[in-house]
Structure formats: C-alpha cells, structure tokens
Amino acid sequence: MYQYWRKAGRGAMYFLAVLGTMTALYLIVALLLGTLSVNNSYAQATEGIEVFVTDNGVHTDWVLPVNTPYIDWRSKLHLQDYAGADSSFTHVSFGWGDRQFYMETPEWSDLTLTTAITSLFWPTRTAMHVEYIPAPLKPNKKQRPLVLTPQQYEALVNYILKTFQQQNGQFLLIPDHGYYDTDNFYEAHGKFHLFKTCNSWTNGGLKAIGAEAALWAPFSFLVMRHLPEE
C-alpha cells in the first residue's frame, strides 16, 4: 500500500509540474503575441460611426449603435424578446464565448471546477451574448471608442453577423437564459478553447476592420492595449 501511494504521489507531482510548465508557456506566448501588433499604420477616422470595445476585466464586448443606415439590429434582435428594452435604447453589445460557461455562470461565484476545465481544455459549443443598452457609453479605460468609416463599419457588422447561427435569415435565440430583461443568448458558430477565446474573437473584429490589433489576444487587457487612448 505504501508503494502504491508513493507512486501515486509521484504521478501527481509529475502531472502538476507538467501542468505548471504548460501554463507558464501559454502565458509567455500570450503576452508575447499580445504585445505584437498588426495594422500598425492604422489611423482612426475623424468622422464616421462611433463604436466601443468594453472590458469587464476578463471579457471584452463590441458595442454598436442600434440603428444606422447600414443595419437596424432590431430586425434581427427582436425587441419582443427583451422585456426591459424598448425602441429608445441606443446601443447593443455583442460578446462571443463558451456556451456552457455563459449558461451556468451568471456570476463568478457560480463558476464550478468542471465548467472551468471543460471551457479551457476542450473545444466547446459557443453562444453570442447580446444586451440592449439605453444610452451611449462614456469613454474611459474600460470603454474605448473607435470611429469607423462606413466601409469599416460594414466590415464589422459582417464579422458579427457571420458569427451568429441563422435560419431563414434570423438568429437562433436560446430561450430563457438571459441574465436580465435586457439581454439574451443566441447560438453561435465556432468552438471555444484555449486558443480561441472571447477576447480573441473581439480582437478578430479589430483585424476585420483593419484597425491596430494584437497578433493574438486571449486576455482582455491584450485587446485593450492596442486601442486608442482617450
């Protein structure tokens, strides 16, 4: 029995050592590639359509106007599905991520070890989190504005549209899973894993419009560091 536990202890230590090494390598590569930027010559437009990238410290979202000449999001995100929103709401946010994590973790205190491990180490189904916002955001360190040309805005809209699963031109609502009465979840394309996170999706939107972005940004601060300061 002693020999069994001795071997088990050695195996556990070896596993922890490998896990620690892999974690360290992941962090080093993330910081390196997150520091490197693409589209370095990008110059923000002086006039156009203002959008935001927001950061809650872990997760980033895109925030767009509800209605522009290029799209009225209410044609896809029907107000009848949002009891707390109405036609006066001015903006809408989009955040892509792990479906199970979204469904089971409305608060960080709800996070379980199983959900965390599954989200990180196994490619999982995804969802788009959408929230109607009643008024324009105010720029700050966690809410960075970008002024886009019409062409850039259309590219961003197309990037977001292609992330939604659609049927007959309509998004696929996941019923009864919103956190509040102003948000909802929809089925999304893609798999979530260590190398494709919610933040790398946001960073992909920056690349899609030709803005300065990280080469790879699995963490929120790596997305935000490439955005123009106030």
What labels would you give this structure?
seven-stranded antiparallel β-sheet, two-stranded antiparallel ribbon, 230 residues, alpha+beta
In words, what does this structure look like?
The chain is of the alpha+beta class and 230 residues long. It has one domain (36-224). 34% of the residues lie in helices and 22% in strands. The chain has helices at residues 2-35, 99-104, 113-121, 150-163, 198-208, 220-224, and strands at residues 37-38, 49-55, 60-65, 91-98, 126-133, 143-148, 166-167, 170-171, 173-174, 183-187, 213-214. The strands form 3 sheets. A 7-stranded antiparallel β-sheet has the order 6-2-3-4-5-10-9. Strand 2 (49-55) and strand 3 form a beta hairpin. The radius of gyration is 20 Å and the shape is globular. The model has no long low-confidence stretch (mean pLDDT 87).
Q: Per DSSP, what share of the residues sits in E-state strands of 2 or more residues?
A: 15-25%
Q: How many structural domains does the protein architecture include? A: 1
Instruction: Please work out how many helical segments DSSP would assign.
Output: 6
Relative helix content: 25-40%
- Count of extended strands: 11
H/E topology pattern: HEEEEHHEEHEEEEHEH
Please summarize the sheet with the most strands: 7 strands, antiparallel
Structural class of the secondary structure composition? alpha+beta
Radius of gyration: 20 Å
Distance between the amino and carboxyl termini: 64 Å
Outline: globular
